[in-house]
Amino acid sequence: MKSPGDWEAGKRQIADLSLWKETFSYMEEPYAAPDGETLAAVVQTGEMEFSVCVNGQPWEAVFDKAWYPRFTPDGRLTALVSQEQQWTLAVDGVAWESGFDFAWNTQFAANGQGLAVFAQEGGEYKMALDGNGWEEGFSDMGDGALAPDGSACAAVVQVTSFSEGDIFTFKKGCYTVAVNGTAWEQAFVNCWTPVFSQDGKSVATQVRVNLYDYTVAVDGKPWDATFPCVWEPLFVPGSTSVVAPVKTPKGWTLARDGKPCWSSFFVQLLRQRFAPDNKTVAAVCAPKYGRWTVAIDGNPWKSTFDEAVWDVVFSPNSKRVAATAKDNGKWTVVCDGKAWDEKFDMVFAPVFSPDSGRVAARAIVNGKQALFVDGKMVAQDFSRAFDPVFGPQSDRLLIKGIKDEANRLVYSREVLVL
After folding, report:
1. How far is CA 121 from CA 98, 128, 179, 211, 331, in A?
2. Total domain count for the chain?
3. What's the pTM?
4. Which residues constitute the domain of residue 121?
5. Can you give the pLDDT at residue 336?
6. CB distance 204 to 218 below 8 Å
7. 200 CB contacts (<8 Å, ≥6 apart)?
């Protein structure tokens, strides 16, 4: 994410949304830029005319329809837009030259450069990268992904047609992965969640090889071993080696290139993550039925939770782990196995400070959004807040949110000294 440049303590009003509502006949949910300096929302500017309003000023271009405004990691504003019954992506108000019958699910490269969308054209499905749609389309398309460096995109595609009742053709395998529009040679009964390697040159995906067996395929080649079930794979950073949760007769464990690499087994295991040091692995696990926690290199936390554990996050120094957890109907943040005392109606992914010493999170409390640092509330009563950002020295926090102030709905950017 692009780091905010202004870390001077204090609060600044960026936009008066009450004025927006008075100006435009229709306005959708607003979104804030990573640095907090910009707020944007889809607005109706005239009869059957829509645009995106940025800090009170709409884009010069107007469209038949606009939706899904999102900021890229480097701060550019995108929206899916329709012009003359053709959908495309607009970036900072400028639409791609290419258009499609429909477009959806904008994808951003981790480095902030590449942009991709899912698209339908002439009854066929494809992905479009930086405005260039695949030359070949497919009759159906599922999960997709964009390479971290923005150089390629991939999606699950159907390569063999079959009718609803044609189970024999289905069992032979009708799905595979297409990378930049080129489908793998081998097809499978099903495929899910393709993921790229760090360099964008390899793709791994879950595959169902027959009605009963599952495995992981890397660049079209399945692992030698099969399992009763597998979950989303993940490349080992800096390599073409892949890890994935797999189900074995002993329970769920983590496998690397088809062979179990953890000695521990669980009732369930999923959402594995590598630490920044590219060595340590953490994952959501269920050490026993109905109890959830985090396992680090196969070792589960002692504290467990009855409904869910999600959003596993490593600290920058790779030594700490935080996650969100739901227990007895309430959410909280868990750091290094210890839950915050505060409980929430909902809580979003935690954020570590650059020095790894602090943890912040956005939460919903009694219908309003608030921000917490190390379990203590530092800002509250937002009708809409955005994820907090720590300053480079870890002693300041960027707060972005919309509040009712003197009967006006105001979006402000505040830098708080911790």
Report:
1. 11, 11, 18, 32, 42
2. 2
3. 0.94
4. 102-265
5. 98
6. yes
7. 147, 148, 149, 150, 151, 152
